[in-house]
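Usage

Read records sequentially. Each one opens with the input sequence:
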Amino acid sequence: MTLLPDVDEPRVDFEAGTGPHAQNTPAQGTSGLDFGSGVELALAASNQLFNARNAPRYVAQVLQGVNTVATKLERTSQPFTGVGPAEMKRRVEAVDLERPLPDTAAALEELQHTYLRDAVYFHDAKYAAHLNCPVVIPALVGEAVLSAVNSSMDTWDQSAGATMIERRLIDWTAERLGLGNTADGVFTSGGSQSNLQALLIARNHAVARLRQDPANEGLRLPLLLEKLRIFTSVDSHFSIQKSASMLGLGFDAVVSVACAADHRMDPAALASALATAHSDGLVPMAVVGTAGTTDFGAVDPLADLAALAGAYGAWFHVDAAYGGGLMVSNRHRHLLDGIGLADSVTVDFHKTFFQPVSSSALLVREGAMLRHVTYYADYLNPETAARAEIPNQVDKSIQTTRRFDALKLWLTLRIMGANAVGALLDEAIDLAARVSSVLAADNDFELAAGPQLSTLVFRYRPLTADGTRLSEDAADELNPAIRSAVFESGQAVVAGTKVAGRHYLKFTLLNAEATLEDIGEIIALLRSSGESLLAGSAARTEAHA
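and closes with the structure output:
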């Protein structure tokens, strides 16, 4: 496929310093470098700077890249090639980074072998592994625009209109979540960073309260952190433990709370854990609920958790990195009931809003709480600017330089609308329900739980010749091997996880164009791989007998 005719590109040899502006200057510097060659090299390199003079070259080269990707996409019939790490390492290491290629076409041709041919393509209907979504075209337009203009979202004098677009989207998201008129927030790189910032605010908020106690007067921060605890479900994201470690609390400051049979946090178990901590003289710093657990898509009973957190003066954070897309769902919005009671919320637009990585946000119900991450620097965001109400976004962020990722969501909403995005998520949720019925009726597979969003956890555990199920231990060996075999075939990509210490497979369905037939073909592939592996194992056992 060719979107536009090829555009001639000036051939530039950067190593030799030749090009349209190259000059022959024989002067030699004391370093041994030919000064004239250095000038030629700089002049040639300036042809690649994005500016008004080079705008036609920018269009030509970017269109070459777009054509390359579009052509590759049209010719790709499965999500992966099955290439192994050793082969990819060999190809990439064979590239001589000290010798530039003559033009963009040559570089894109090389990229076919070092990346594009063997990339994992999330748009393919048989990619059903992790929380990677196919992306919508308006967001790709936004990606092209924001990368070229290259706004930095730290200060107003670097971002202007971008600042206002991001702020408007934060307000829109807060309104959708029901966080109230005093809410605020900031875009981040992803759910892990959003969770980290939320818990940093929660930690500083708790410490500020501890400092009000005369008994803590003069104590340094490490001593004040010793008694702080975070409560979250056993199925919550690992970034909660990781954040606790990075915040100086330690992994053991996170109290894992049991879930009910539906994998939602059990409020009674949380109440017991909070009461025990309080009686032990510990301080409940935060309760973290999850709206869409990674494995089961479970949405915790948010209103109940909010009430318990409030009773102990704990910050209530909701990790809705996965389930945040429900805010635009046309049929499943009710699953987020209670989220407006949160003190802070994580939303990943690059999951269930079909945005390219990265695009996440942290929202807080009381915008004033963002002061806990505010630092002023005279060379960047002086305090005088804040007093003058100059909108420097770095005042709200733990990042300094930051991309204008909000533009992708902005163009998506302006071109498609929120209801259309929600319809894509609804299709994925409905597909998961239909696939669940298929697996539940298949004697070769076991479901770990029914679907709640768009994930399904299951395993291949067929009946044996005597009518009993394959043993638990045998299934534990078999299912990871099935996953590996399917991945190496490149025909499909599925994920794996553990439930109660046992190995399972997992579908994560986020492709609105995937059909029941598509997923049925993956199930057939899993079955045939399992049968082959079992037959091979039986043959080896017989040979050794």
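Summary fields computed downstream for this record:
- The two ends are 58 Å apart (CA to CA).
- Residues 327 and 452 are 15 Å apart (CA to CA).
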